[in-house]
Amino acid sequence: MIHLGKVGITETILRDAHQSLIATRMTTEEMLPVLEILDDIGFHSLECWGGATFDSCLRFLNEDPWERLRTLRKKMPKTKLQMLFRGQNMLGYRHYADDIVEYFVQKSVANGIDIIRIFDALNDIRNLETSIKAASKESGAHVQVAVSYTTSPVHNIDYFVKYAKELENTGADSICIKDMAGLLVPYETYELVKALKENVKIPIQLHSHFTAGIADMVMIKGIEAGADIIDTALSPLAMGTSHPATESMVAALAGSEYDTGLNLEKLNEATKYFSKLRHKYLENSQLNPKMLEVDTNALIYQVPGGMLSNLVSQLKQAGKEDKLLEVLEEVPRVRKDAGYPPLVTPSSQIVGSQAVFNVIGGERYKMVTKEFKGLVRGEYGRTPVPIEPEFSKKIIDDEQPITCRPADLLEPELDKMRSEVSEWYEQEEDILTYAQFDQVAVKFFEDRRNKKYGIDSKHLNTEAQVHPV
């Protein structure tokens, strides 16, 4: 298949790369010296916001995520800025009312976002409709909708093509194959991309993590099948649970019909800067060398890197670190019981935590988390495979399953949130910050006020805890 035009590169070092390798701890101050260099390179886009960056800014870095976005926009005027958005979950971990979702999308674009990559953990299109409409029709952003890639008895090429057609008809401007767990293999990727290109008329982007050590080959075969854009990360924070190295992919495609048009010398300027940061992260143990290792277990257990680190933390807290293999073996069984959800936030944390409880409890489903009950009940949407009625009854007893779009059960929230945050209000965006992270946001607002009036107070966001990143 002949590729039309050069391959675009979405650089992820300011979001998914450091989210994958150092739990999203890169600060805005660390980013500042390299922003103008990045802006001059000519990327298709620069993913720099959304995902876990919002939570980490508030919870761990004592930064206003909105101020970060405004700074990035000011320093990189030439490059399209991209964010990751969890549809009806926004950047939090529950479903939010439509008026909150719409307002968040509007404010994201107003503060500098050009491309919004929207996805739903269950590939339930009902959970995407509000944010797609808000981004395209009301805000004028480029709407890229992601297909959460996974494997199961129902997740085949026909499934993904059907879903992609629905996304195109709903208003997607482009489609991303989002392989968050690094499950894609080269030749299957070729067939999948080829089928998508034959059935939809909008650009296809490819996103795959390097966990199993084959994502660069996945990218090459995807490009040969017609993928228009690929996600990469500059080499100091590439590979491992991150993405293929930008420089390597640019060099591999140079001089071919897929040439990216990017200059290696310009890329090298940015690489030199991030190499210093990498050394710092290694020295202060933010970057665990284990996160850089190839782990083909990802292809067996389908556990994304961030989920794996959470499982280890949970077992460590329980004094059961020796049970990790049992938990990894239990994850696919729990996933099957729960209707084969793709493992990505929040479903990855829900399935993973339940697998831990099943193993350390000594009996499967003796203890059931509130979130797992919610998944089975339908609070997060429709699972890819209907859950067996007998299993559903075991988990939720006589509670009524939710069969409608979950957000249809939610009353408008914006005015309520505006009222609740009034004591701390300094900007409209504070309403949205509070709506997602309530008490964490209040701690941040409190510290912000103390700084404003010269009060020295220790920020409380450094407490150790297991948290999805």
Description:
There is one protein chain. The two termini are 38 Å apart. This protein has 469 residues and is an alpha/beta fold. 47% of the residues lie in helices and 9% in strands. The chain contains 20 helices and 8 strands. Strands 1-2-3-4-5-6-7-8 form an 8-stranded parallel barrel, surrounded by 5 helices. Helix 3 runs antiparallel to helix 12 (264-283), helix 14 packs parallel to helix 16 (347-360) and helix 15 packs across helix 16.
Structural class: alpha/beta
Task: Order the strands across the largest sheet as they lie in space.
Answer: 1-2-3-4-5-6-7-8
Order of helices and strands: EHHHEHHEHEHEHEHEHEHHHHHHHHHH
Please state the oligomeric state of the protein chains shown: single chain
Share in helix: 40-55%
Secondary structure elements and pairings:
Elements: E1 8-11, H1 16-22, H2 28-31, H3 35-41, E2 45-50, H4 53-61, H5 65-75, E3 81-85, H6 98-110, E4 115-118, H7 129-138, E5 142-148, H8 157-170, E6 174-179, H9 186-199, E7 204-208, H10 215-224, E8 229-232, H11 246-253, H12 264-283, H13 297-301, H14 305-317, H15 324-337, H16 347-360, H17 370-377, H18 389-396, H19 414-420, H20 429-452
Parallel strand pairs: 1-2, 1-8, 2-3, 3-4, 4-5, 5-6, 6-7, 7-8
Helix pairs in contact: 3-12, 6-7, 8-9, 9-10, 14-16, 15-16
